[in-house]
Design goal:
Layout: E1 4-7, H1 13-24, E2 28-33, H2 38-48, E3 54-58, H3 64-78, E4 83-86, H4 101-129, E5 132-137, H5 141-144, H6 150-170, E6 175-182, H7 188-191, H8 195-203, H9 213-224, E7 235-238
Parallel strand pairs: 1-2, 1-4, 2-3, 4-5, 5-6, 6-7
Length: about 240
């Protein structure tokens, strides 16, 4: 029987590549999305090319009842969740002096609250199974901060604290909890940047390039696998050496 991986926010960018990469390695995939979008069917087709099952569930991770419902739907479909990747996230970037309270709240509620909401509803199944992998997508700005991103940085720093604390709570049940902290990754969000801006970013990265979604997905694949069986409570930067 294939292992089952749930990836939140999985219809584009990093989440989509993680889902496809795990599918290529024989996982059945549950993908969560907030709103119907043109990428959903495309993502499902790319996953199913690998002769694995793909089950899509709608739900807003910032809503606890949504998470409770869609986790039950996945359990009803597959009977288990072996790997949880908390990837769903949003940005509402601006300087704190200009930031509206709703911009702060929405980022915290989605990025950090969503990580709690989904994990809370998955963890009991993993504990009964006495095993599992939880991989939380944080960010290097949760470690070093970034002007104009007090809300986003706070949410990603919170994910790191959440990861380390939960790792200590569930290690005795053979549930490993780790975080991945991407740096500048080429996604649809960075596609809107001008080439000169991208060049300036690359100059400040020791490897002199932005990362790819595959760079992040490869680390998630490792943390989901048996090769990482003695690693828990860690934060792995995928940033080309930007933060050391």
């Amino acid at each position: 029987m294939n292992k089952v991986a749930l990836i939140t926010g999985a219809t584009r960018g990093i989440g989509k590549q993680i889902a496809i990469t795990l599918a290529q390695n024989g996982y059945d995939i549950a993908i969560n999305y907030r709103k119907e979008n043109e990428e959903l069917e495309n993502t499902k087709k790319e996953i199913e090319k690998n002769n694995v099952k793909c089950f899509s569930v709608q739900g807003d991770v910032s809503n606890f009842e949504d998470c409770e419902r869609f986790v039950k739907e996945i359990i009803n479909e597959f009977g288990k969740i072996d790997v949880l990747v908390n990837n769903a996230g949003i940005t509402r970037d601006t300087l704190l002096a200009r930031m509206k309270k709703e911009d702060f709240d929405s980022v915290i509620n989605t990025n950090l609250g969503g990580t709690f909401n989904v994990t809370k509803n998955v963890i009991s199944y993993m504990m009964k199974a006495r095993g599992g992998r939880i991989i939380n997508i944080s960010s290097v700005v949760g470690i070093v901060g970034n002007a104009g991103q007090t809300n986003y940085s706070a949410s990603k720093a919170g994910i790191i604290g959440f990861t380390k604390s939960l790792a200590k709570e569930v290690a005795s049940r053979n549930i490993l909890v780790n975080a991945v902290a991407p740096g500048f990754i080429e996604t649809q969000m960075t596609d809107v940047l001008k080439d000169e801006v991208k060049d300036d970013i690359a100059k400040n990265i020791p490897l002199k390039r932005m990362g790819t979604t595959q760079d992040v997905a490869n680390v998630v694949k490792f943390l989901a696998s048996d090769d990482s069986s003695y690693i828990t409570g860690q934060v792995i930067n995928v940033d080309g050496g930007m933060v050391m």
